[in-house]
Design goal:
Number of domains: 2
Distance between the termini: 43 Å
Radius of gyration: 23 Å
Order of helices and strands: HHHHHHHHHHH
Number of strands: 0
CATH superfamily of the largest domain: MetI-like
CATH architecture of the largest domain: Orthogonal Bundle
CATH topology of the largest domain: MetI-like fold
Number of helices: 11
C-alpha cells in the first residue's frame, strides 16, 4: 500500500507540475511560435525580447503595483478584522465568518460585474473617473480580504489569550502590547495571508477585466494576445514570475522554520 500511495502522489505531482516544467523548458526554445512544440535549440532571445517589449513591461508594472498595494491593504484590514472576529461571541462570530466566506464561493463573474456597476455608480454620484488603477486596487483588496482573515484567525486561536492582558498588567500600553506581544505570535499567519493576497492579485483575470477600464494587467494583456498570436516572450515572463514566487515561498518557509527553532530553544531554556 505504501508503494501504491507513493506512486499515486508522484502521478499527482507530475500532473500538477509537468505543464510548468514544459513552459520553463520552452522559454529557452529558439522556435518563433508557441504553436510549434518542437525543440529547435537553446536560446535566450525571448528573455532579451521580453525586456525590450514596452507593452509587456507596462502591463507587468501595473500588475505588480496593484498586487503589492492590494496585498498590503488587505493584510492590514484582514488582520484587524480577524482580531475583531476572534473577540466576538459565538453567534456573531459565526455570522461574520459566513459573511467573510461568501466572497470566496461567489462566482468571480458576479463579483466583477457587481463591482463594475458599483464603481460606475459611485463615479457618477461623486464625479471623477470610474474605472482604472484605483478601482482595480479596491476590487483586488476586496476579494483578497477573506483569505487574509482565514490565514490569521487560526494563529489567534492558537495564541494564549492572556498574553495581551499580561503585557498591559506589566505596564505596557495597549498599542505597544499589540505590536510586541500579539503581532509576533500571529506573524506566520499574517505573512501567509499577504503572500496569498499577492499571488491571487497577480493571477486574477475576471474581476480585473470588469474593473480595469483602460488599465492593462498581464492577464488582460495575455488574453488580448490569444485572439491573434501568443508570443514566446510570455513563456519567459511566466518562468521569471514562477521563479520569483518560488524563491519568496522558500525564504518565508525557511524564516518560519528558524523562528520555530528559536522559540523552542527559548522555551527549553526557560524550562531548564
Amino acid at each position: 500500500m505504501k508503494i501504491l500511495s507513493k506512486i499515486y502522489m508522484g502521478l499527482v505531482f507530475l500532473f500538477l507540475y509537468a505543464p510548468i516544467l514544459v513552459l520553463i523548458v520552452f522559454s529557452f526554445n529558439d522556435t518563433d511560435t508557441m504553436s510549434r512544440s518542437v525543440w529547435s535549440g537553446f536560446s535566450l532571445r525571448w528573455y532579451e525580447r521580453l525586456f525590450q517589449d514596452r507593452m509587456i513591461l507596462d502591463a507587468l508594472r501595473n500588475t505588480l503595483l496593484i498586487a503589492v498595494v492590494s496585498a498590503l491593504l488587505s493584510t492590514v484590514l484582514g488582520t484587524s478584522a480577524a482580531i475583531g472576529i476572534n473577540g466576538m461571541k459565538r453567534l456573531p462570530r459565526r455570522l461574520m465568518m459566513n459573511i467573510t466566506n461568501f466572497p470566496m464561493v461567489n462566482p468571480e463573474i458576479v463579483t466583477g460585474v457587481s463591482m463594475m456597476l458599483l464603481f460606475v455608480f459611485g463615479a457618477r454620484a461623486l464625479g471623477g473617473l470610474s474605472l482604472g488603477m484605483g478601482s482595480m486596487i479596491l476590487a483586488h483588496t476586496t476579494f483578497c480580504l477573506p483569505y487574509v482573515i482565514l490565514s490569521v484567525l487560526p494563529k489567534l486561536r492558537q495564541m494564549d489569550g492572556h498574553l495581551y492582558e499580561a503585557a498591559q498588567d506589566l505596564g505596557c500600553p495597549p498599542v505597544p502590547s499589540f505590536f510586541k506581544v500579539v503581532l509576533p505570535e500571529i506573524m506566520p499567519g499574517v505573512v501567509t495571508g499577504m503572500i496569498m493576497a499577492f499571488t491571487l492579485s497577480i493571477d486574477d483575470f475576471v474581476i480585473s477585466y470588469f474593473t480595469s477600464g483602460t488599465t492593462q494587467t498581464l492577464p488582460i494583456y495575455i488574453y488580448s494576445m490569444t485572439r491573434k498570436r501568443v508570443s514566446p516572450e510570455i513563456n519567459a515572463l511566466s518562468t521569471l514570475l514562477f521563479g520569483a514566487v518560488l524563491i519568496l515561498l522558500l525564504v518565508v518557509n525557511l524564516r518560519q522554520a528558524r523562528d520555530k527553532r528559536e522559540q523552542k530553544a527559548r522555551r527549553e531554556e526557560a524550562a531548564g
